[in-house]
Amino acid sequence: MTTSPTTGKERAQLRAEANRLTATVHVGHQGADDSAVRSLDDVLRTQELVKVSLSKNAETNPKELARQLAVSTRSEVVQVIGRTATFYRHNPKLKRKDGVRPRV
């Protein structure tokens, strides 16, 4: 896969992989504050695909909040379903076999 999921097929593969993930980052009512951005950035360093749970009490709608987090972490929003968003950021430093993406 290239540095970003630009084709529909690549996005579909990422969405399929995200089905088995649980949310590893939780964003509170403060929204895309420094703490949330740091947490997501840390997880994206070790995993290219991350699922994030967005608070029901956040002042921003989920799609806008996901967009803000993606811009702040230089990642891409793969999908937003309800209050759960999935992010992808390619990491060339992760070890992988030829043509195989690292485990997420």
Structure description:
- With 104 residues, the protein is an alpha+beta fold.
- The chain has a domain at 20-88: 2-Layer Sandwich (Translation Initiation Factor IF3), CATH 3.30.110.
- Helix content is 35%, strand content 19%.
- The protein has 3 helices and 4 strands, in the order H-E-H-E-H-E-E.
- The protein has a 4-stranded mixed beta sheet, sandwiched between helices.
- Strand 3 and strand 4 (84-88) form a beta hairpin.
- The longest helix has 13 residues, at 34-46.
- The chain is globular.
- The two termini are 14 Å apart.
Q: What summary fits the major beta sheet?
A: 4 strands, mixed
The number of distinct β-strands equals: 4
| Count, helices | 3
Helical content band: 25-40%
Rough outline: globular
Low-confidence stretches: none
CATH topology of the domain at 20-88: Translation Initiation Factor IF3
Radius of gyration: 13 Å
- Report the order of strands and helices: HEHEHEE
Structural class: alpha+beta
**Range of strand content:** 15-25%
How are strands sequenced across the largest beta sheet? 1-2-4-3
CATH top level assignment of the domain at 20-88: Alpha Beta
Distance between the termini: 14 Å
Please state the average pLDDT score: 84
Quick one: CATH superfamily of the domain at 20-88?
Answer: YhbY-like
Annotated CATH architecture of the domain at 20-88: 2-Layer Sandwich
